[in-house]
Amino acid sequence: MPTFRFEGSDVVGSPREGQITASDANAAVAQLSRQGVRVSRIAIATQSAPAPAPATKPRLTAAPAVRPAAVQPTADRPQPTAVRTPKVSNRHLSFLFAQLASLWNAGVAPSLAVSRLADQERRPHLRGALTEIARETAEKGSLSSGMARYPDIFAPGTVGAIAAAEAGGYLPETCRELEERYRDASVVGLHSRLLRAEVLIAGLIGIPLAVTWTKASVVMTDEIVNGGADSADVRLDILFREAWRAFFGWPVWMMVGGFALYLLVRWAMKQRGQLSLRHRIGLALPVFGHFAKQQNLAAFNRHLERLSAAGLHPALAWRLAAGAVPNTAFRDRLLSGLQGAGEQTPYAQILQRARVLGAEESHVVANAEFTGTLPDAFRHLVRSAEEKQAVWAKARLVTFMTSAAVLTGLLVLVALTTFYGGYYQGVINAALKGTEGE
């Protein structure tokens, strides 16, 4: 079996070089990937058959394009240069990852699969991004590093999931999971937009119009009582004229100011610097926060199951799996468990530091480390989180429907109270004026 000399870097960017024995270059790179080493160059150093030792250091050639160990950006490693692009909808991203999973399951190389999708893409900014990602994947052998350059298209959790899958060798499975993640996000986004539209239309349009119509009705009622509006045409003319006049007061300013404030807050919260704040708010919400926590735990434990089976040491597997969760606030909580952890630190100790699982779950992991059945333990935690996630998904839908019904009822109640309260007040006042005149 030949011996290969390699050069590369580990997960924190430190240079690594040495020798490894494997059946061929691809097997050598795959073995190093499981050890957390991203190979940049590799060459045969010695053969198993007797051969004269080389007088000089062998010339190294580019490593074959097989799955590399992904390197997560850290403080001591320069971040990739970000390319600003328009956003891509969750529905389109779900379709994109579904196509990638199908191509990779069929044995198509990652760079060729991305290049093929780029040729078929109609949106110019996404086509350009996929073209550059395919080129960088072919050159560097890392799909995640290319995706990291386009933060407006691929979220940090998506890039982290691809990086973990490259390290563990399970890209097709991860793409299927990303397809489901983006499909669920698309459904939730639709529900949120409908709820926001209901609030904006009923609150910023319905109530001002109800107040405007009420003022006009009071004036018309007064004219009817005083005998100034005998015919229906005259009454309608008074009603619409007074409504138009009353509208260009505080109601129009309420509508314009309300929409302007909504757009300003929405723009501010959509800024990339507010991503962590949005995710913290998401975790703090009553029902949606519980769903998000279980969704992140399921994704995290799923990656730990595969990375531990691939032979990565706990600290490295934990860092890669933490980067794969969709919520950045939850990711930071997970990474807090790595403070002071080294290659020999067990999972159970990291779990205690991170404080993301209960004592029972921590005992499951500790016992699995003792018996050497870590993948089975993490698979059990995945099933537990998915069951809770399904329960909270139903609760999330009920919350959407209940909130919509309550908001509709309240806004209609306010509008009707305003209208009929003002209308009958106008009738009573007009009647009292007529009585006083007599």
Keywords:
single chain; 438 residues; mainly alpha; four-stranded antiparallel sheet; 16 helices; 6% strand
Describe this protein's structure.
The structure is a single chain. The chain has helices at 25-34, 90-105, 110-120, 124-140, 143-147, 156-168, 171-225, 232-247, 250-270, 275-284, 286-309, 314-323, 328-335, 347-354, 359-371, 374-437; strands at residues 3-9, 15-21, 38-46, 61-62. By secondary structure, the chain is mainly α. A 4-stranded antiparallel sheet has the order 2-1-3-4, covered by helices on one side. β1 and β2 (15-21) form a beta hairpin. The longest helix has 64 residues, at 374-437. The protein is elongated and about 110 Å long. The N and C termini lie far apart (117 Å).
Q: How are the strands of the biggest sheet laid out side by side?
A: 2-1-3-4
Q: What's the multimeric state? A: single chain
The fraction of residues assigned to DSSP E strands is 5-15%
Low-confidence stretches: 46-77
Put simply, the count of helices is: 16
N-end to C-end Cα span: 117 Å
* Count of β-strands: 4
Overall structural class, as computed from helix and strand content, comes to mainly alpha
Helical proportion, percent range? 55-70%
Mean pLDDT: 80
* Pattern of helices and strands: EEHEEHHHHHHHHHHHHHHH
Please give the largest β-sheet: 4 strands, antiparallel
Rg: 31 Å
Shape: elongated
